[in-house]
Amino acid sequence: MPVQYLSPEGMIPQTPYHHVAVGTGTRYVHVAGQVAHMPDGGPIPSDLAGQVGQALRNVRRGLQGAGAEFRDVVRLTVYVTEWEPSKMGEFMAGVESVAQEVGLPMPMPPASLIAVVQLFEPGVLVEIEATAVV
Q1: Which domain of life, per UniProt (predicted)?
Q2: Is the pLDDT reported for residue 25 higher than 90?
Q3: Which of 46, 47, 66, 104 would disulfide-bridge 99, Cβ 3.0–4.6 Å?
Q4: How many folded domains does the chain comprise?
């Protein structure tokens, strides 16, 4: 297994992600920020949970295209518009709704959630980047 997840003692407890990932593979896979665009070109979900779920599906598609899976991810970076802590429940509902489907380990790989004013397209609430080692 090319990735080992750790949450050393003394780091913030009970987070939905691990604090450290150690990658031992030889190839890095970088997936550019993915949003909730639908594969068939249909409208993106309007809610945060729906967009998080679809963005994770799209990240998985990118990982698989390079021969990787979520178990190979050493870092996730998530950008969310107009973030406030009260949105964490809806955000995690989106994660949990697709975690098993896409093979996302829970707790998640090390992750950062960054609040932004807006993303590149109106109506896009979340964008997710991934780095993997295989």
Answers
A1: Bacteria
A2: no
A3: 104
A4: 1
Supply the range of the domain harboring residue 36.
3-133
114, amino acid identity: I
Greatest CA separation found in the chain?
A: 46
Instruction: Give the Cα separation of 132 and 119 in Å (integer).
Output: 24
Question: What are the φ and ψ backbone dihedral angles of 124, each rounded to 5 degrees?
Answer: -85, 120
pLDDT tens-digit readout, 40-95? 999 999 999 999 999 999 999 999 999 999 999 999 999 999 999 999 999 999 99
CB neighbours of 98 closer than 8 A, spacing ≥ 6?
53, 56, 57, 104
Strands (E), the chain: 3-6, 20-23, 28-34, 73-81, 111-116, 126-133
pTM of the model: 0.94
CATH no. for residue 124?
3.30.1330.40
